[in-house]
Amino acid sequence: MSAAALAVSILVAVRQLQASRRSDTSSATLALFAEYRTMSMRDSRDKIYRFLGEEESATPLSMLPDEIREDCFRVAYYFDHLGLLIGHRLLPAEPFVAFPGNGCSRLWLKLKPHVEAERQRRGVRYYLGYFEMLALLSNRQDAEVINHKLIRQALDGTRWRRGARVGD
Questions:
Q1: What confidence category does residue 4 fall into, taking pLDDT thresholds of 50, 70 and 90?
Q2: What is the tens place of the pLDDT at every residue in 12-67?
Q3: Most buried residue among 19, 22, 40, 96 by CB atoms closer than 10 A?
Q4: For the residues 106-133, what does the mean pLDDT come to?
């Protein structure tokens, strides 16, 4: 009898832990999506697209002009932190590859020469390496394919449990 009670207790504890992890992941995911859509983050991404070319060699991030430097750091740190969470499997990769589309890869191409120059200046080989990893992952996993698959599954009901369909 006590062995059965122990087994049930362990099962309940494991399920509570799993539910807690899903809840934590959901909260983190929503917070990161919200941050990506803030006005300051949009402005920073727009400035990077407008003012930075894709040079072979460039100024280190920390030595860029004041009017663009903080925007570059804001975007680079965002994707680096996101890449760290995904790289350590604390967050799922698919939503964060699909959500910004090819934005991560495009921003990496703009910032890459400046990041590499910053790595040389600091003597640190992997500075912002999780950003680079996330950009490579984004290139390998086509956001359009992921989004098409998820939308198709939602519309035909295969994404939802118990057969619920959109509009039912």
A1: low
A2: 555 665 555 555 567 777 888 788 889 999 999 999 999 887 666 689 999 999 98
A3: 96
A4: 94
Residue closest to 27 by CA, chosen among 91, 99, 104, 87: 91
Q: CB within 8 A of 28, min separation 6: which ones?
A: 85, 90, 91
78: CB partners within 8 A, 6+ apart: 35, 36, 41
What does the DSSP 8-state code read for residue 126? T
pLDDT of residue 9: 58
* Residue-wise burial string across 58-90, b where 16 or more C-beta atoms lie within 10 A, e elsewhere: bbbbeebeeebbebbbbbbebbbebbbbbeeee
C-alpha–C-alpha distance, residues 146 and 132, integer Å: 20
Q: Please state the domain extents for the chain.
A: 23-159
Q: Which helix (H) or strand (E) holds 77?
A: helix 66-87
Question: Is the separation of the CB atoms in 57 and 113 below 8 Å?
Answer: yes
Q: CB of 10 within 8 A of CB of 3?
A: no
Whole-model pTM over 0.85: no
Q: Report whether pLDDT(104) > 90.
A: no
Does residue 95 or residue 76 have the better pLDDT? 76
